[in-house]
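#dry-run=false #mode=assembly
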Amino acid sequence: MSGPTGDRMIRVDMTHQTAEIVDFPDEWKLLGGRALSAKILLKECDPSCDPLGPDNVLVMAPGVVSGTAAPTSGRISIGGKSPLTGGIKEANAGGEPGQHLMRLGYRAIIVKGQPRDPDKRYALNVTADGAEVVEADQYKGHWNYALIDELSKVYTKAASFISIGPAGEQRLTGASVACTDQEKDRHPARHAARGGLGAVMGAKGLKYVAIEPGKARLREPAERKLFMALCKEYTKAYRAGPQMFKTGTSSVVPVANMLNTFPYKNRTEGQSPDVATLDGARIIESFEERGGGMHNCMTGCIVQCSNVVHDKDGNYKTSALEFETLTLLGSNCAIQSWEDVADLDRLCDEIGLDTIETGAAIAILMDSGGMEWGDAEGAKKLMNEIPEGTELGQAIGNGAVAIGKRQKHARVPVVKGQAVPAWDPRPLKATGLTYLTSPMGADHTAGLIVNPGMPEEDWVQASQEVQLVNAACDSSGFCQFLQVSLDDIRKFYGLLYGEEISREQVADMGWQCLQDEWEFNKRAGFTAADDVMPKCLEEDEIGPAKVKWDVDPALTAKMYTRFAPREELFTMKASG
Amino acid sequence: MPQVAVPPPYRGPTAGLETIEVEGSTVEACLKAVGERFPGFGEQIFDAQGRVHRFVNLFVNGEEIDRKDLGHAVAAGDRVEILAAIAGG
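#status=ok
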């Protein structure tokens, strides 16, 4: 037995609005998600291209075990050249599209070209029988939730969607790509947010992708009995353990504050006086009176880290109100209440924007005197300016660097043009090295290390190892919050394809993904000179220990030479 | 002597030490012993009222204990482990 065979890819030409089904190369069968996207981009995308032009390539690729019975395995990678960083980008999301595409046997959607008329909108319909580009002008300018409401009248109840909001249509470099969750209402709340890939999708005139799974079944592993036994054993062990994410990442707020990595007022401080009112515990408390609760964003998830948040009247407000959003749109802007952050989160999801980049941009506006600190209502009004296309709205939608330039403001905390996430590099030096050397720019999901006491001599290896493990995880389809190890991934792959897969093979796949991405960036013009922290993080001290970024630049160069694998590499958990 | 296992996010005050042997016959005594040796550690575990922070999970020999059960007995060779969910997201 060989496991799933006959997989295909969908090649889309947006210049001519055609879609073609092609065979998926058998030699790529252990490539998925991020690694597959990197391989395709290195092969088919000119790294020197205009990210918003016809030569950029947009990839949508689920993971290797997506569409199977493996727990929490339906993640999808959206990839392309980022208009925000100018380098390669992979942004990862949950929801249903990854599961559906793989059940239909589609390993990737590859979108090239650009319509001649930039005002036209199109959609891609995907079914078991093939794919078709159709006109979609009637949805032009639709916010994401209204779009899904309309599409729900046209497609079956089972369909899932990948879409952009007005920010992507306006090609704003903070624009996200939304995926619908597995709830009956199909909330467009799962965002492949970082790096402006929504703008790339918008530049290709693609408003949405609709996937009709029909009667598609779970993918059949080569060793079915053993695979199912592994799924059961893994799930049992997970449920018997501490289940650290059962109340969601929003519960991390007080710990992060304690560690001086809950940035306040554009990162001028590491702790917030509003920690109690931004704490995820307040969201959990709201469930009793208002409804909502914890749920899984994709079928088959056993972690259930996502929250469904209701307003005071018990109506749905938003979903996936996460730690990063509570930090960047809350504490970082001195906005005090989680309820206001929930409103801003909903606005980001509707307009199609990265909450981290948007929160960083608003904080820079406040820091430069363009707005009062903590003005939550002002922030909401400002967000509404984005789809209206005002000059200030566009600057916010284009992110931290754009608003910093507009305001002629010096404190712009970005690496390679992308806003630094909540996890601050000043107390978390190893994480800072991830930000500097990751092909993604400042991205905590590329490799987060929360170990303030780690000796300096361990930082580089720790960052390299977690970057490798996370690259492998983001290629597998498993969610990082399942906290799989390379050994876990190896077991599932081996039973999926009925092959003996060595530890070294899985580790090599993670490393090769990083190598492909670094090579793309090199060809795009990146050099060692780009592996730098912004001056504000080198100069501004935070916390009682008055830490700043003062790491020897010589350490970053060591990241690109592979360390000999040690036992920890294979057993450590993905961390993002 | 019992051991206290310190998770990575809490190793700032312990200068990176992962496992610390202490004198103590209860969970509370062991945690406070670490706090006395490494200033700053205690505040990561206990709030101003002396209760364990809500976000801290405690285990003895791999079995989770109620964070209110600070009088849980420990013996020589026992392992007190602190877990915290740090990621996100």
